[in-house]
């Protein structure tokens, strides 16, 4: 028997029944969407399992997709088999292969940009496309799994093998990146790449979706402190530039991070200057001139900084001048720029999730 023949047989043995493959792929895509979305709010190292799971499950998808495409390829190569749903199937395959390829390339430190987009952003776009296309594709070919498809012990073994392969690949990849010293070696656990240097020019001004306001007039600027405080305030910039300093790490979900020295006013000091918060105070909302906003629990907010300076320089417009939020332990999109209002609230602010996506669209 040839080596190739032996290998082929071993691969065949690993192949689950078609319906099991299909349902597993659906479940895995759902799990990837969930871990991918959750990863956007993980900023501290104790959240590493989210990233580990996302990558390990990705490897399992590669294996199952291999079986699936090998099985259905004749539906494409033989025009007699084309159906109306074939286009949707092709789109699902393209989105899946696109997400896998960009995800793997990103993890290995490939740094190609698609215009202003990092590979990671392209990966997210493919992922969102999958989220729409895969349920539609599944609906056109809906078949419930039968009992006979799930061969108990055999299926369990196949899946254990798949998952172990995913976890091992993850370890091997990390080791390879370090050994070969690729651009993937100095990543944070979030996958973000470092941006070195100090001050405004060291890292890119980044907007989450469409925020792009006119520069804020420093003379007319007032920072409002309102809501559940004893006395509302309206402060000029000078009152914010009080000299509290902190070194903090900003980690953007588009795949870069930077460590900078920020300077400004501690939010806790600001709240004390407003005579303290009322009994009902539970959250602090930071609102941008654009309407963009994010909310932190009061205790966390008190430790945050409203910064006027970075790396010893006055903040540039692109980085949120005159005042931006510095929220250590939070992802970049929560560091609101061009802050003009600090509102102490009696509760959280679920609508902020939508507002950050749509602010800036006129
Ligand atoms: N008002 C407002 N603040 C914002 C954003 C935005 O789009 N609008 N983008 C956020 C995102 S996604 C990141 S990563 C950081 C980037 O900060 P920088 O532009 O100073 O690099 O700002 C955050 N603050
Ligand atoms: Mo970001």
Automatic annotation (TrEMBL):
<dbReference type="InterPro" id="IPR000572">
    <property type="entry name" value="OxRdtase_Mopterin-bd_dom"/>
</dbReference>
<keyword id="KW-1133">Transmembrane helix</keyword>
<dbReference type="GO" id="GO:0006790">
    <property type="term" value="P:sulfur compound metabolic process"/>
</dbReference>
<keyword id="KW-0812">Transmembrane</keyword>
<feature type="transmembrane region" description="Helical">
    <location>
        <begin position="49"/>
        <end position="67"/>
    </location>
</feature>
<dbReference type="GO" id="GO:0020037">
    <property type="term" value="F:heme binding"/>
</dbReference>
<keyword id="KW-0472">Membrane</keyword>
<dbReference type="GO" id="GO:0008482">
    <property type="term" value="F:sulfite oxidase activity"/>
</dbReference>
<feature type="transmembrane region" description="Helical">
    <location>
        <begin position="114"/>
        <end position="138"/>
    </location>
</feature>
<protein>
    <submittedName>
        <fullName>Oxidoreductase molybdopterin binding domain-containing protein</fullName>
    </submittedName>
</protein>
<dbReference type="Pfam" id="PF00174">
    <property type="entry name" value="Oxidored_molyb"/>
</dbReference>
<feature type="region of interest" description="Disordered">
    <location>
        <begin position="187"/>
        <end position="211"/>
    </location>
</feature>
<feature type="transmembrane region" description="Helical">
    <location>
        <begin position="88"/>
        <end position="108"/>
    </location>
</feature>
<dbReference type="GO" id="GO:0043546">
    <property type="term" value="F:molybdopterin cofactor binding"/>
</dbReference>
<dbReference type="InterPro" id="IPR036374">
    <property type="entry name" value="OxRdtase_Mopterin-bd_sf"/>
</dbReference>
<feature type="transmembrane region" description="Helical">
    <location>
        <begin position="20"/>
        <end position="43"/>
    </location>
</feature>
<feature type="domain" description="Oxidoreductase molybdopterin-binding">
    <location>
        <begin position="216"/>
        <end position="353"/>
    </location>
</feature>
């Amino acid at each position: 028997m040839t080596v190739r023949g032996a290998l082929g047989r071993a691969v065949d043995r690993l192949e689950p029944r078609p319906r099991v493959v299909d349902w597993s792929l659906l479940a895995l895509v759902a799990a990837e969407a969930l871990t991918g979305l959750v990863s956007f709010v993980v900023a501290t190292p104790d959240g590493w399992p989210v990233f580990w799971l996302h990558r390990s499950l990705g490897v399992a998808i590669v294996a199952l997709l291999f079986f699936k495409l090998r099985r259905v390829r004749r539906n494409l190569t033989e025009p007699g088999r084309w159906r109306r749903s074939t286009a949707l199937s092709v789109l699902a395959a393209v989105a899946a292969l696109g997400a896998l390829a960009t995800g793997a390339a990103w993890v290995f430190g490939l740094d190609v940009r698609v215009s202003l987009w990092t590979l990671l952003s392209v990966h997210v776009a493919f992922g969102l496309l999958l989220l729409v296309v895969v349920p539609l594709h599944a609906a056109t070919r809906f078949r419930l799994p039968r009992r006979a498809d799930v061969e108990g012990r055999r299926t369990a073994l196949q899946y254990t093998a798949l998952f172990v392969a995913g976890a091992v690949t993850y370890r091997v990849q990390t080791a390879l990146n370090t050994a070969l010293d690729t651009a993937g070696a100095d990543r944070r656990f979030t996958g973000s790449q470092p941006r070195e240097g100090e001050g405004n020019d060291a890292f890119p001004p980044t907007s989450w979706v469409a925020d792009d306001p006119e520069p804020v007039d420093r003379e007319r600027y007032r920072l409002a402190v309102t809501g559940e405080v004893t006395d509302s305030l309206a402060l000029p910039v000078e009152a914010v530039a009080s000299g509290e300093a902190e070194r903090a790490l900003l980690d953007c979900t588009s795949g870069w991070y930077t460590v900078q020295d920020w300077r400004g006013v501690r939010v806790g000091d600001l709240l004390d200057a407003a005579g303290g918060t009322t009994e009902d105070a539970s959250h602090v909302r930071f609102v941008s001139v654009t309407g963009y906003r994010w909310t932190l629990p009061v205790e966390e907010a008190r430790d945050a900084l409203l910064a006027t300076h970075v790396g010893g320089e006055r903040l540039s417009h692109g980085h949120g001048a005159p005042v931006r939020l510095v929220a250590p332990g939070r992802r970049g999109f929560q560091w609101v720029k061009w802050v003009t209002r600090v509102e102490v609230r009696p509760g959280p602010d679920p609508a902020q999730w939508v507002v950050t996506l749509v602010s800036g669209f006129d």
